[in-house]
Amino acid sequence: MNLFKNIFGSSDEPTNTSKVGWRPLTDMGQLNEIINESTDKPVAIFKHSTRCGVSRMTLKQFENEYDMHDKITPYFLDLLEHRQLSDAVASRFSVEHESPQLLLIRNGEPVYIASHGDIYADDLKRYI
């Protein structure tokens, strides 16, 4: 069983040991904060389904590649816990809801959107 947990991760992602330094996205009011923050520094939103193996694998891969601590502000959205907020993100930034999904917001607008197997930290760097 540990082999599967090591490969796919657990449903408790992201872990406290994540090197990303996620900020939890849990409140609708945070969307306005994110838009304001993104004028000074790009903001990433990672939408994750804790019940999806593909989402877990993508999250683990992203976390392992991540090395942009001072370049972006990363937010983590558990879309199962906060489905209305996930829908609000999709509506506000005019993107189709997907999971997993990564958005990079700069000056209040999405400049990079990726989902599923197209989410890579190295790709994100090109849009910072």
Task: Give a written overview of the molecule.
- With 128 residues, this protein is α/β, with parallel strands linked by helices.
- The protein has one domain (25-125): Glutaredoxin (3-Layer(aba) Sandwich), CATH 3.40.30.
- The chain is 34% helix and 21% strand.
- A five-stranded mixed beta sheet has the order 1-3-2-4-5, with helices on both faces.
- Strand 2, helix 3 and strand 3 form a beta-alpha-beta unit.
| CATH fold label | Glutaredoxin
Strand-residue fraction?
A: 15-25%
CATH architecture annotation name: 3-Layer(aba) Sandwich
Silhouette:
globular
SSE topology string: HEHEHEHEEH
Average pLDDT reading: 88
How would a textbook summarize the main sheet? 5 strands, mixed
By DSSP (H or I, 4+ residues per run), the number of helices equals: 5
As for the number of domains, it is 1
Uncertain regions spanning at least 5 consecutive residues: 1-13
Q: What is the strand and helix layout of this fold?
A:
Layout: H1 2-8, E1 23-24, H2 29-37, E2 43-48, H3 53-65, E3 73-78, H4 83-92, E4 101-106, E5 109-115, H5 121-125
Parallel strand pairs: 1-3, 2-3
Antiparallel strand pairs: 2-4, 4-5
In brief:
By secondary structure, the protein is an alpha/beta fold. The protein has five helices and five strands; from the N terminus they run αβαβαβαββα.
Q: What labels describe this entry?
A:
21% strand; five-stranded mixed sheet
